[in-house]
Write a structure and sequence with these properties.
Mean pLDDT of chain A: 89
Largest interface: A-B, 31 and 38 residues
CATH class of the largest domain in chain A: Alpha Beta
Oligomer: heterodimer
Number of helices of chain A: 25
Mean pLDDT of chain B: 82
Strand content of chain A: 5-15%
CATH topology of the largest domain in chain A: Rossmann fold
CATH architecture of the largest domain in chain B: Roll
Shape of chain B: globular
Order of helices and strands of chain B: EEHEEEHHHEEHH
Number of domains of chain A: 5
CATH class of the largest domain in chain B: Alpha Beta
Largest sheet of chain A: 5 strands, mixed
Structural class of chain A: alpha/beta
Strand content of chain B: 15-25%
Number of domains of chain B: 3
Low-confidence stretches of chain A: 631-642
Distance between the termini of chain A: 85 Å
Number of helices of chain B: 6
Amino acid sequence: MKEVKRISSPEDLKKLRQEIRAKKDSSKPIISICVGTGCIALGATKILKDIKDEIKKSGLEGKVDVRETGCLGICEQGPMLIIYPEEIPYFKVKPEDVSEIISKTIIEGQLVERLLYKDPETGEVAKEIGEIPFYKHQLRLLLGNNANINPKNIEDYIEIGGYSALAKAVFQMTPDQVLEEVKRSNLRGRGGGGFPTGIKWETTRNALGEPKYVIVNCDQGDPGAFMDRALMEGNPHSVLEGLIIGAYAIGANQGFVYVREEYPLAAESISTAITQAEEYGLLGENIMGSCFSFSVRVHRGAGAFVSGESSALMTAIEGKVGEPRPKYVHTAVKGIWDKPSCLNNDKTWATIPLIILKGAEWFRNIGTKDSSGTMIFSLVGKVNNTGLVEVPMGITLRDLIFKIGGGIRDGKKFKAVQTGGPSGGFIPEQYLDIPVDFDELVKIGSMMGSGGMVVMDEDTCMVDVARYFVDFLLEESCGKCIPCREGLRVLSSILSDICAGKGKIEDIQTTEEIAETMRETLLCALGRTAANPILTSLKYFRDEWEQHIIEKRCPANACKALIDFYINPEKCQACLLCLKECPAGAIQGDKDKVHWIDQEKCIKCGTCYEICNFHAVKKLSGEAIPPPPEGMKPIRKLKGEN
Amino acid sequence: MKKVITLQIDDKEVKAEEGKTILEAAQHAGMEIPTLCWYEGLEPYGACRFCSVEIEKKGRSQVVASCCYPTEEGLKVKTRSPKIVKIRKTILELAATSAGEDVSSKMRALACEYNADLSRFRSNAPLPPTKCILCGLCVRRCIEANWESAIGFIGRGIYRCIALFPEKAGLCSTCSYCRDVCPTGRTCSTFGPRPPFPRVNDVLAGRK
């Protein structure tokens, strides 16, 4: 094992950094390959192995470095890799591309054109990472370093300046000065609530009771959001450094990192980071030779959405069932074991080192007046470029979705965007130009949440999607409070009925009544915001609800019970494809005979709609289905016939 | 001695010791706030939200559960505003969704008082009535009688129910305390803990 020299002063850290930098040759090519969860799912592990083998085969060992990094953002285009120092990004890399990458790019210095990013509109090819529109409009303060470090190697983090903020805080500043700096920076909690971080810290610091605890919340469980995970997987030391600085300011000696069990890579990453930081003397007794000691434990939570709520998370750390506490006492004052506990999202903690190093003024100049800094969104749904996006606060939704996200897929029309996870609201097109920050989103009935952003196009039914989120929350509600448990049960049942064409007009009023009761009375944020999808869906898309209930039709053609599949005889080429594929045997016809769907047998699976090459299969909703062509199986008109 | 603070409940000035909840302050002053999951002497649990009241703080009105909310100097509380009455009606109707209409006389009286239709949402829950509103009183009372609970919650969300823990069944001394506190008037303490252990929910609903 490598001998590790403990860092016992800020000078030691500087010296170590210089040593690491001196060892590196800046002209030596580095292949940064993303082995984050998304790219692994797309086969990055195999590619990584192939690259290593290929380097060995070509005799380049020691001449090229391979760096395994965390998420690089544009998950849609994975597996991806970046070749330094030229910053050449390659996307959708397959194992068979590996030898070409090595022989052409690494040895000959030429580009492999087909792996570069091509703008779908202009057709322009991006030779550098910064040229890609997805990255061009971003400001990647937290995620940017993911490409430069191997999360499992602390020296990579130290090389890029890591832990110098900790050195500055502990050796040049008093805890009060650190606290003051964070307060002045206007940093607000990135977990969703947007509570001023400095004030939270101060509350815990001033609260009576010892010991005090600091906690990282990495329990993100929203469908379609994965930035907490990506940050923890890709740059765990930044979170850890922020946490240590926070503990110093607050006066805590024990910290917890709460990672959900479903994020094995994130848990592994932070555990490795903690072990390494301890070895280097950056964590544990007498950090960097100072008199400040701090230790951290990782708590793996059994996935429960409600455990993301601060008091529920703390009950879970105590070893009990993760349920929110009924008391109206802030966890910052009485948290774990009734001791003052300061909980922040991992993005909030990771921002702290930047603020300490660059100053509160620098941070306040980014973003808007009341929401400073950057925010990470996970842009998903029906956009062209899905992935993690980090932008300054105050960017408009339109820029996010169209400039960075590359617009809606398949040229469809934008319908709504949902921000803030399952309990966020739907935002219709007329609000696309509002600046995105904590306060503006609340004004229009949604919220920042932890930054989920699900884009919906014209094929999305707003009643159906409200039903989806209610069902998600129904599954995740802890079941303690009557209005939440029973309210969601009733709402889910009403919404299913509406989607099935069994809705009654008074259902809208009932839905609103229950939603209001939930919003007013409930104990935790999960319950209080659970009605947001329904309330905003009703507010902005009421006509769709009425069409479902009164006309028994789904305008987006999404609710299965309200649509029928129909083959347009004019377009059908009698190719037999749908007939063979139909799992219910509902399609009749023959070679050269127009096909038609027996509505009695049809199970509305949509297979024929998906596979028809001639767009002959149509979805009809609220319209009468034209009768089958005369004589049941007429011979298709042959060319030249009348 | 504890500090005494003054607050306003329904336009009446009320004095309370610091640290008391709104509910306790109101009861002390002889005013009534209806509850389902609260019981004198037990820790407040805040699950039924039936004791919700409207408070005014810094010019903003807010609905809070009075059994948990601590009194504050100068707090203005409305215990029966039109909004609160509407909320309580809905909560009663929701509580009866899975519990059914055949609940205690207390709940039926409340339903009359708040004009609640206990069968309103019954059709939305396809299961037989459980008669249990999961207020947790039996669990909490059991903990305090035995220092450890022979019954507890299992499941999450709509699958939440109360169960007798077989390995702890020996604790059950058939003290009947759980039956005394049950607001729906049904618990199982008359059952001897012999295997196979009944699920309290089934017992409550009269299912064998």
